[in-house]
């Protein structure tokens, strides 16, 4: 099914509004992947008349479903997340796995979960970062490896909140040790050594 069919009441793509006809939509399935915006996992609203993305489960934003079912905690708990997504501790919301322990902006922590479980320090200390991500010196936050020593200190940039990714001694060591051609595996091993020394 196209992501344009039964996507939201009042948003019509067909001149005759047939793409949002309730009886037609009840018979349609929702797309698992939306190639237009890259979001995985579309589900039916409780009334079966629309599809919504699982990223919208109980996220306290403007309801997508006309019946507002995707904001009902009981409804949300019964929904599953798509591949690459995980439920928050409260069982309501889905968020991308890369959002675990990602820390956030320098203005404060960027929570993917309303219950803040994705940034729980106790959990994040034992959580292993995803591929191409490394822990900051605080042992809690994970950042993308490409942000190490990138010299960027933009307020909205999600780098280490403790600024350990831009530590001058650390970056000097990184520049020296990473100046040779290395494989992906060697980079990972080298970063582990660096982390033990500095982060």
Q: Any overview of this molecule?
A:
- This protein has 199 residues and is of the alpha+beta class.
- The protein has two domains: 18-96, no CATH class; 100-197, no CATH class.
- It has five helices and six strands, in the order αββαββαββαα.
- The chain has helices spanning 22-26, 73-77, 121-126, 168-177, 184-197; strands at residues 42-44, 51-53, 85-87, 94-96, 133-135, 142-144.
- The longest helix has 14 residues, at 184-197.
- It starts with 21 loop residues before the first helix and ends with a helix.
- Mean pLDDT is 76; it is low at 180-188.
Protein traits:
LDrepeatLR_classA_rpt, alpha+beta, two-stranded antiparallel sheet, 6 strands
Largest sheet: 2 strands, antiparallel
Strand content: 5-15%
Q: Distance between the terminal alpha carbons, to the nearest Å?
A: 47 Å
Amount of helix = 10-25%
* Number of helical segments with 4 or more residues: 5
Radius of gyration in whole Å, from Cα?
21 Å
What is the compact description of this entry?
The protein is an alpha+beta fold. 20% of the residues lie in helices and 9% in strands.
């Amino acid at each position: 099914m196209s992501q344009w069919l039964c996507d939201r009441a009042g948003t019509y793509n067909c001149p005759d509004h047939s793409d949002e006809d309730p009886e037609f939509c009840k018979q349609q399935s929702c797309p698992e992947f939306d190639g237009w915006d890259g979001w995985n996992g579309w589900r039916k609203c409780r009334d079966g008349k629309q599809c919504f993305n699982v990223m919208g489960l109980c996220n306290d934003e403007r309801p997508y479903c006309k019946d507002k079912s995707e904001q009902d905690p009981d409804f949300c708990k019964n929904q599953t997340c798509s591949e690459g997504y995980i439920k928050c501790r409260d069982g309501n919301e889905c968020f991308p796995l890369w959002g675990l322990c990602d820390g956030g902006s320098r203005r404060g922590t960027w929570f993917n979960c309303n219950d803040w479980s994705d940034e729980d320090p106790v959990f994040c200390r034992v959580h292993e970062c995803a591929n191409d991500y490394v822990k900051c010196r605080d042992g809690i936050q994970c950042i993308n490896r490409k942000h190490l020593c990138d010299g960027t200190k933009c307020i909205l940039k999600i780098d280490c909140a403790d600024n350990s990714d831009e530590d001058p001694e650390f970056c000097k060591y990184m520049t020296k040790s990473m100046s040779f051609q290395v494989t992906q595996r060697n980079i990972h091993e080298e970063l582990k050594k660096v982390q033990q020394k500095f982060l």
